[in-house]
């Protein structure tokens, strides 16, 4: 039986090995470049998959999982960093005059990791920590579009796409077609798909090597700004995204 120190070092090796890859890598290739015994490697990858540190698809390709991305962000590790993050988001919220924030993937959901709420009397309040469906939100569709085709299709096939609002996607093929457009544009929208009367725009926040970490979003009641009006603030979102990416790279 391997001792705890050895097990930990092997887990760290597997996570580091997976995270350094520029694209999804087949599990046998990772094993080939490691001195960890094959049965042990398989067992540890399965454990890391169960805990969402890694994700392995049916073809054996290994990707960083939701928990690993959450750690990579490391946004709330102390008050100083939290204050810096909020200052960046406050700047965007002041310019757009709407709620802006960051969402990160968690399984088949997106989690509101941080957000700045506006002071308008009419608000749609979605609290920090709230989980939202990946097929019916701008942030969720953005994350799905970032995935390799086989992994994306597997996840979409598992979704029970229930109708949440008047424009919610309930057809897998229609969602896949939109995801292809989002992947090309690197911009995602929610046009009353999650909540009636709510519109949203999201763009990706990426690591230095181009991997999806989180989405930067703005949302508002349609009665105050139409989706087209919200899209005019894309340059502001992009400038804020650049600030966030620089900030994250300073932490890692």
Automatic annotation (TrEMBL):
What is a single Pfam family found in this protein's UniProt entry?
A: IclR_C
GO BP, one annotated term: negative regulation of DNA-templated transcription
Q: Outline the extent of the IclR-ED domain.
A: 67-252
Which InterPro entries does UniProt cross-reference here? Answer: GAF-like_dom_sf, HTH_MetabolicPath_Reg, Tscrpt_reg_IclR_C, WH-like_DNA-bd_sf
One MF term in GO for this entry?
Answer: DNA-binding transcription factor activity
Q: Which UniProt keywords apply?
A: Transcription, Transcription regulation
Tell me the protein's name.
IclR family transcriptional regulator
Instruction: Tell me which species this is from.
Output: Photobacterium halotolerans
């Amino acid at each position: 039986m391997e001792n705890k120190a050895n097990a930990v070092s092997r887990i760290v090796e597997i996570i580091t090995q997976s995270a350094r890859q520029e694209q999804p890598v087949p599990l046998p290739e990772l094993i080939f470049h490691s001195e960890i015994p094959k049965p042990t490697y398989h067992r540890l990858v399965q454990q890391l998959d169960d805990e969402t540190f890694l994700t392995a698809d049916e073809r054996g390709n290994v990707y960083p999982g939701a928990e690993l991305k959450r750690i990579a962000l490391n946004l709330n590790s102390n008050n100083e960093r939290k204050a810096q993050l909020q200052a960046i988001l406050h700047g965007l919220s002041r310019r757009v005059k709407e709620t802006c924030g960051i969402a990160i993937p968690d399984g088949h959901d997106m989690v509101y990791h941080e957000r700045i709420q506006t002071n308008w009397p009419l608000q749609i309040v979605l609290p920090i920590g709230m989980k939202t469906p990946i097929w019916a939100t701008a942030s969720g569709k953005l994350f799905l579009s970032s995935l390799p085709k086989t992994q994306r299709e597997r996840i979409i096939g598992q979704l029970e796409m229930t109708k949440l609002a008047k424009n919610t996607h309930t057809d897998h093929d229609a969602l896949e077609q939109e995801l292809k457009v989002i992947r090309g544009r690197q911009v995602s929208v929610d046009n009353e798909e999650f909540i009636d009367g709510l519109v949203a725009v999201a763009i990706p926040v990426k690591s230095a090597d181009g991997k999806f970490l989180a989405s930067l979003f703005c949302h508002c009641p349609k009665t105050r700004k139409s989706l087209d009006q919200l899209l005019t603030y894309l340059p502001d979102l992009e400038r804020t995204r650049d600030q966030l990416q620089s900030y994250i790279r300073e932490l890692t």
